Amino acid sequence: MSITFLRHIRPTKAVAAIAAGGISLGIYSRMMTDSAHADSGSPSKVFGSGPAFVSLPLESSEVVNHNTKRLRFRLPDENAVSGLALTSAVLTISWPKGRWLPVARPYTPISPSDQPGTLDLLVKLYPDGKQSTHLHSLSPGETLLFAAGLKGPAWKPNAIPHVTLIAGGAGITPIYQLTQGILRNPEDKTNITLVFGINTDADALLKPEFDAFEKDFPGRFEAIYTHRRFWHYRSKIDNYRSVLETFPLNQGVFLDQV
Predict the structure, then answer these.
(1) Which residue ranges make up the annotated binding site?
(2) Which residues are annotated as a binding site for FAD?
(3) Alpha carbon distance 30, 244 (integer Å)
(4) Could you give all domains of the chain from N- to C-terminal order, each with its CATH number?
(5) What is the pLDDT of residue 226?
(6) Tally: H helices and E strands in the chain
(7) In the predicted structure, residue 234 carries a pLDDT above the cut 60
(8) What phi-psi label fits residue 24: left (phi over 0), alpha (psi between -120 and 50 degrees) or beta?
(9) pTM of the entire structure?
């Protein structure tokens, strides 16, 4: 059994790497990319290659539960797409009020990479979270700086017959992105079991979307919700160790590193 950690990107290292190239490189790369796509007639990829350094306006903000919002940002063109590779995140940068230095945090989009015109983030508010607090305070029309796309571990379609995806809390976003990417690829026949650890029913983020996957892909996708108390969701396993002991060895495990 192979275990892969999805969230292994450290924003400080990413910021240093991007800063080494400079904002001017990001702007130049952006201009060249836009020009190339204009010539080819294909949709422009906002995070196609190199630094992006693009400010995107917030289009809408939806309250999901007591501490989570779904934020939709408008891309520079209605036909533009994020162009992110599967298991990628985006690096966001902001200057919260009262701070001299910027704050950089990676977030995993939950919208498909080929979704035209918009980019969706699911953001959990943390009590001392500088970036999450700032993002939750945004109103439609206000902008957020996106520095670059950050690639995660590469996913190879059909490399294994079955994969177990394990997540807890807001760590569900990279797992959701991977699930969505696998199931939307007609060439990828990988079966998926999701193990999602939650504290309350309100913490079952993206449950309607996972319910739809179970309905649309019967026999290929199953979601298992684990809870510290017994309730109406199935509770087959209680911790990561028993997860690894429960599932067959001839498969892969993608574990959100929280």
Answers:
(1) 105-107, 122, 124, 130, 132, 173
(2) 105-107, 122, 124, 130, 132, 173
(3) 43
(4) 6-150 (2.40.30.10), 162-255 (3.40.50.80)
(5) 85
(6) 5, 11
(7) no
(8) alpha
(9) 0.82
